[in-house]
């Protein structure tokens, strides 16, 4: 395990040195370890590592302003650099118009392409030196075989054959500027808004308080939900909730958690996910809360649901694409724990062995439910309701999903 991580870390350092040699303007002078491997919340194998290489040109940044004029900070920034002071010039295509003071904004999409192309060139160079081998197949990575597999959000993703197996490495280059008031931060290229041009601030070291960091019991809850969402995806649904959004959901829950055990926290998250956003609450749609003593469960499937970012209150994560998938799995789990005498499905569930899971008669009903919802979700013109029914020992659970499409996607608001 340690050998695996050391292998990855040395490889990353080697790549960054070569990137700086090939394109001195893209030299880096620091590396921040991010992601679940480093914060100890990785489930399953260490097959993904995240890094923020710090661009040395950070020191020539002259101006940082908020990109939007919204009242609450959404973390989006416009950044200008003093082009005249750069010891190694950036190609003009990466820069906007240079003003009379020699300052320009970045063309962040060009910068991203250039980073990716330079990494590929670095890998080719390393191959000539015998340190790595490019994998022409783009699959079945043997040890030391590597490829740049393209952009993964604002990161360049490399896939490599490492000691414990094929591993993805995300290199998300950043600028390191003045710290945020909560702690050290970096600025990464914002790829959510087309055309590119903005940067997003990300705080890399948060204060040690319940407001920002998960308490030990809630770390367990986080790992549990990560596992559930991972499995939901493996069972064929499109549930792709980011770790960051999931963590934020739990941070909100943590603020007013009165639960005495993990099960109660789990149910409280179901409640939170079932609660309507402020805009929706005023509408005259059916309203219900999760009552786990009842066998009839009503889920409200709308296109405007999100959670507020706890660090940048002006920003929220839209969750409407994953919320119902996750709720189906979570409600299924609770109903089966409560109403089935035998819980041997649980061990299979925890095995993370998809073949075993698919073969299990009880777990198949979860998979069927998720598949039915997938079809329902994709057929936009069909019925407004989907009914799922699960047979327990003596009783049945009925889950009724009502689709409510707003004529417009309402501004995603927070649910607290
Ligand atoms: Zn809790």
From TrEMBL:
It comes from the Eukaryota. Belongs to the mab-21 family. This is Mab-21-like nucleotidyltransferase domain-containing protein. It comes from Owenia fusiformis (Polychaete worm).
